Amino acid sequence: MVVVAGDGAPDVVAGLDKLHNVRAITRGERSPAEVMDLAGRSAATYVVHDADPLADVAAAWAAYFDGTGVTGALEVAIEAALAELRADRLALPDYYLVLEPDTLTPTWRHWWLGVLAGAAPVRVVPVSASSAAVAGELGRLAAGRWWPADLEAWLRALPKVVPDQAGLPGAATAPA
Fold this sequence. Notes:
Blueprint: E1 2-5, H1 9-14, E2 22-25, H2 32-40, E3 46-49, H3 55-66, H4 73-86, E4 95-99, H5 106-119, E5 124-127, H6 131-138, H7 151-156
Parallel strand pairs: 1-3, 1-4, 2-3, 4-5
C-alpha cells in the first residue's frame, strides 16, 4: 500500500488508475477507514491512495510546533490514531510518496523527511507532483526497515520530537 501525500495528491492518484496492476483510490468524501477497507480488498500489486492514516497526527504535530494548535490536540490526535490502528481500521502504508517536499513549510518538511523518514527511512520517498513521476517511483521502491515495532511509544513521543531535530539520533527524547 502506498500513500501519496502533498498538494495535488488526489489528482496524482487519479492519474494512476489506468496503470497495469495498480489500484488507485482517491479519498474524496470517504473516511481513511473506508479507503483502507477498499484497499484491503484489492488484489493489485500496488494499491495507491491519498488517505494518510496519520493525517490528523501530522496536522496536529505541525500546528503544535508552529504555535497555532490547540492545547492537547496533538495528544488527542495520537490517541485517536492509536485506537484506529489497534482496531485495524487503519494501517500504516508500506510507503509514503511525498509530493514536492521542497515546497512545503519547514515544519511540514520536518514531519515528512524528519519524523516519518527517521522512523522508517526508505518508506518515505520525495517525488515530483505528477502521476508519471509517481508511476516511475513505484517500480523503484526499496525494502527497508519497517515502522517502529512499538507504535504506541513512537506516536506518544511525538510531542517531544522537535522539528529541526526530527530524524536525528536521539530525537525521540529531545526536550520540547
